[in-house]
Amino acid sequence: MTSKHWTLVGGAVACLKAFFIAGLLGGVTLISCRVSAGELAFPGYSGYLNIPSATVLDHGGAAVQYSDQAWETRNSGQQNSYGYYNNVAGLFGIFPNVEVGGRLTWDKTQCNGYTEKNCGIRDLSANVKIQAPFIPEEWFTLAAGVQDLGGETDDFEAVYVVAGRQFGPVEISAGYGDPTIENRYLDGPFGGVSYRPAPWLNLMAEYDSQDVRLGLGASTPEGLLPLGMQVNGNVLAYDEGNTENDRTFFSVGLSIPFGNQPSKKRLELPNKTTRTNASPVSVSAAPGTSQGDDRSQPSLTSGKSNEGKTTARRIGQQLVEEGYDRVRVASEGDVLHLQWENNLYTRDERDSILDVAKKVQAADEHHRIATLTLLNQNIPVSERTIELKQATTEQPYAIAARFAPGSLLNAQEPEWDFQGSYGPTWKPRITLSPTISSGVATEYGVWDASVGISAEMSVSLWTGALASATYNAEVYATEDFEKGGVFYDDRQRTDLTEVEVQQTFKLHSQLYTSLHAGRYVSDWNGLLNETLLLSSNGRHSLAYLGGAFEHAEFDQAERNQILARYSYYHPGLNTQFDVYGGQFFEEDTGVRIDSRFWFGDYALTLSYKNTDAEFVSLGWVIPLTPEKTGQFKYAQIRGDADWNYNVQTRINEDANFISFGGARVIRSSNPIRSVYLNRGRLPNR
Q1: CA dist., res. 159 & res. 149, Å (int)
Q2: DSSP state of 266
Q3: 102 close to 618: Cβ distance less than 8 angstroms
Q4: What is the average pLDDT value for the chain, to the nearest integer?
Q5: In this predicted model, what pLDDT tens digit does every residue of 623-666 receive, in sequence order?
Q6: DSSP conformation class of 50
Q7: Are the C-beta atoms of residues 130 and 159 closer than 8 Å to each other?
Q8: Cα(509)–Cα(403) distance, integer angstroms
Q9: Within 10 A of 230 (CB to CB), how many other CB atoms are there?
Q10: For 98-118, what is the mean pLDDT?
Q11: Distance from first CA to last CA of the chain, Å, rounded?
Q12: pLDDT in tens, 163-191
């Protein structure tokens, strides 16, 4: 560095030293805090101007940012340097101590790299940063990260490690980076200082291993905007060194807590009465079960009281009026048996379990316990027992549903005092959702897309049987998805994309199998089988997904799908992992790993595919329907509670060839986990 650079760095260190001494003498408390969502550096990770900080976004935090600075590596023989380019970055606190994100950088939006010259940079990259756990933050924080993970064009690829410490309103960081392309930021030692005279204002000085930079950051005060949102911005005011001199750059972004996790406190069962030292609600077994576990067996009286039968009928009628289907209620002594099918809380069926539990607790004065059984397609799926007369505390109460006993060969039911449904059980249910095929940061353009609207109609036939049809209509397409375009075969087609009938059997409380026959992905007639075996606590499962298909027009075109799937769900972290292996629909073989990180009814997804080529993708799941969906007597129209979109890129190739990726899994629009098991989130206690 020049003498001017050393003067700037020395001055910043001197200011920090003076503040630190003054803090010790004046009793200033040395604190540590986490970077708030939205404080993104220009390269797309949480940090200062160019360098990363030693902290990560808070768990559940999300941020998106636009900036006009990028490191240009495609100057046709000229020296690499910074330039005014478009950058859009997204970042998520996907785990405690882990942030992941993506960055799209481009010069010209409409430019075909194969036929036109000087299209400039166009790159899609991923960032990951992990903060070391178990280190007390009053000591220091330590983080390591990768920029442009798995990239082969080497535009931004780098690894780094950084340590940091906070002293009141001053934060310092120092680290070391190793990029693939030398003589750029993070190429060697780097460091930065941040001073916050106010919570919404940030003054920054940094040395990014090549240049000294001074800048200003600002954000809207917390609580000013709804939904926890904050608008953030950075301005690079001074930059001088080996690669840049006297140019300014800016960024502007939005941060927001992702999902609705705080609202899931409604899954805590409120108390019928409050007593200071009362015992919490207990969970016991359903009467008449003979499973060899620790569930207690309540005693039954031999006769039914008129009051109990009247109460059962009143509760059943209340649930039908609320909109529930296949409601059955029976009174046996001091035990109330209740079954129902939920088509209201389609985002998360645990909400339905708690809704019914609250209504029963409020309405029943004649029974000691109530056994609640959730049905799906008239198959008992999940069960829990609650005590009705025992006073409870206001302590948080989490759902601990267990798999309902009984199977196809062993189904025992009491004599029902009430049976009813909100309209006929065969009523058609129509689910609407957008459909998108897109190419992001390809040689053909920054964003090409084919957009459609899908309508899926399903009808319940009898126990475990469904008939469904899905129609899709394309409503918008960019030029490359139109006829004659390079992406035409991957467009959203206007067609009847799926028609099928299915029959599901519950062979055991933890074993399901489903048989499907119909047309899939518009052109393929076939048979599908899905068989699912769950562990006793619901966290682990094994599945077989097999199918045989013939093309509707070409007689010789046949395909077979032979897949095994292992799944794991961690309820504490609200995280799911699916590992597929075998032969996929397009007859490519290999592995696929899908993961979901739930934040209430929303989720982030990460996927890795390795068959004929390797791909990674980042996406999100957004429910397009209210928390509670209404229905009419003879029909129901709702949005997709599990709509997802992802951005995918090819990795570990010498060239980023255009491809929409292999490892395709053909499954029904109504698979077992979605129809019966709350998308895999009904674990046992």
Answers
A1: 9
A2: G
A3: yes
A4: 84
A5: 999 999 999 999 999 999 999 999 888 877 665 556 677 899 99
A6: S
A7: no
A8: 6
A9: 21
A10: 86
A11: 61
A12: 999 999 999 999 999 998 888 899 999 99
Nearest to 405 by CA among 292, 532, 299, 304: 292
Please tell me the predicted confidence (pLDDT) of residue 15: 38
CB 505 within 8 A of CB 495: no
Give the pair of three-digit tokens for residue 336.
Answer: 């109330």
Residue 153 pLDDT greater than 90, yes or no: no
Question: For residue 378, which phi and psi values (nearest 5 degrees)?
Answer: 70, 15
Tokens 């029902």 — which residue?
Answer: 416
Q: What's the average model confidence in pLDDT over 483-504?
A: 93
- Collapsing DSSP to helix, strand or coil, 379 comes out as strand
Q: How many CA atoms lie within 13 A of 538 on its CB side?
A: 22
Q: Tell me: the pLDDT tens digits for 277-306?
A: 333 333 333 333 333 333 334 444 444 468
Decide: helix, strand or coil at residue 144: strand
Amino acid at 23: G
Could you give the count of Cα atoms lying within 13 Å of 26 in the half-sphere of its Cβ? 10
CA distance 631 to 482: 38
Q: How many residues does the chain have?
A: 685
Q: What is the DSSP string of 62-128?
A: EEEEEEEEEEE--STTSPPEEEEEEEEEEEEEEETTEEEEEEEEES-SS--TTTSS----EEEEEEE
- Determine the residue type at 447: W
Distance CA 305, CA 81 (A): 85
Is 345:329 a contact under the CB 8 Å cutoff?
no
Distance in angstroms (rounded) separating the CA atoms of residues 306 and 294:
32
Q: CA 114 to CA 136: how far, in whole Å?
A: 53
Q: Which amino acid is at 540?
A: H
Tokens of 255: 């941060």
What tokens does 444 get? Answer: 């053909």
Distance CA 186, CA 188 (A): 6
Q: Is residue 51 a contact partner of residue 190, using CB atoms and an 8 Å limit?
A: yes
